[in-house]
Amino acid sequence: MSDDSRKVALVFGGSRGIGAAIVSRLADDGYTVPFTYVSREDAANDLVAKVRGAGGDALAIKADSAKKDDLAAAVGTTIDRFGRLDVVVVNAGVARMGLIDAVPLEDLDLQLDVNVRGVYLAIQAALPHMKDGGRIVTIGSNIAVRSGFPGASVYQTTKAAVAGMVKGLALDLAPRGITINNVQPGPTRTDMIGALGNEGMDMVTNMVPLKRMAEPDEIAGLVSYIARNEAGYITGASLTIDGGFAL
Ligand SMILES: NC(=O)c1ccc[n+]([C@@H]2O[C@H](COP(=O)([O-])OP(=O)(O)OC[C@H]3O[C@@H](n4cnc5c(N)ncnc54)[C@H](OP(=O)(O)O)[C@@H]3O)[C@@H](O)[C@H]2O)c1
């Protein structure tokens, strides 16, 4: 495939919420955007139709970020179909709240598997197919900087781990000119935060100095910027976008 072919951005966890906004934004930026989902085939197919309706190209791939083979297969499908990989965004994440005396082992394992192990394995699978000078973006959380409420210890652990992972990988990948950065959203209007219920969402919104949640498009805009050539000197950074919550 010639170097003139359309650039390809693979988004892990792209079917809903922040991931879906990133898929749409990168497609608007001119990328072909394969993305993974785990359960919501309906949402994934709707997003593909939306992107194609707007003149872009996207592909939905079922792949569980908790499964190493699924992650490798998603990368394989991307290369088979599009022949190149320029940008990788690892957005898939799960949040299970609970105080330490009430956290089931399954919730602990699921969050570690998807939010930490899955991020590392996705990047490990993608790297051999990326050209020098590529871009990797993880989606962490501002909770790595400040929790603010009880019951989030496991989720906070996973997002702090991603911030550390990105620093280490930035050094590993610098010789190849591949940058890796971690976008840390604050409360953002998606299904994940909707799970807190109205009372929980009001509580969290009131903790934000700007007194509102982010829209997923606002997070996608920062990812779009990091993917550009002009952002090539940013690496190993955790960029918090949270309306001042963590200050
Ligand atoms: N919303 C917030 O306030 C907020 C704040 C800070 C950070 N974040 C982080 O931002 C990211 C996106 O959050 P969101 O609010 O957009 O969440 P969301 O609305 O719950 O959407 C989660 C997305 O991740 C996918 N996903 C979940 N588990 C997966 C797995 N095992 N394998 C593959 N894909 C999986 C889902 O796929 P399906 O559609 O198939 O389920 C969906 O596309 C997460 O990493 C989250 O921790 C969110």
From TrEMBL:
Entries under PANTHER family matching the protein: OXIDOREDUCTASE, SHORT-CHAIN DEHYDROGENASE/REDUCTASE FAMILY (AFU_ORTHOLOGUE AFUA_5G02870) (PTHR43639), SHORT-CHAIN DEHYDROGENASE_REDUCTASE FAMILY PROTEIN (PTHR43639:SF1)
Keyword Oxidoreductase assigned: yes
Pfam families documented for this protein: adh_short_C2
Organism domain of life: Bacteria
Alphabetical UniProt keywords: Oxidoreductase
Lineage of source species: Bacteria, Pseudomonadati, Pseudomonadota, Alphaproteobacteria, Hyphomicrobiales
Protein name: Oxidoreductase
Family statement drawn from the similarity comment of this UniProt entry: Belongs to the short-chain dehydrogenases/reductases (SDR) family.
GO molecular function ontology, one term from the record: oxidoreductase activity
Matches recorded under Gene3D superfamilies: NAD(P)-binding Rossmann-like Domain (3.40.50.720)
Keyword Oxidoreductase: yes
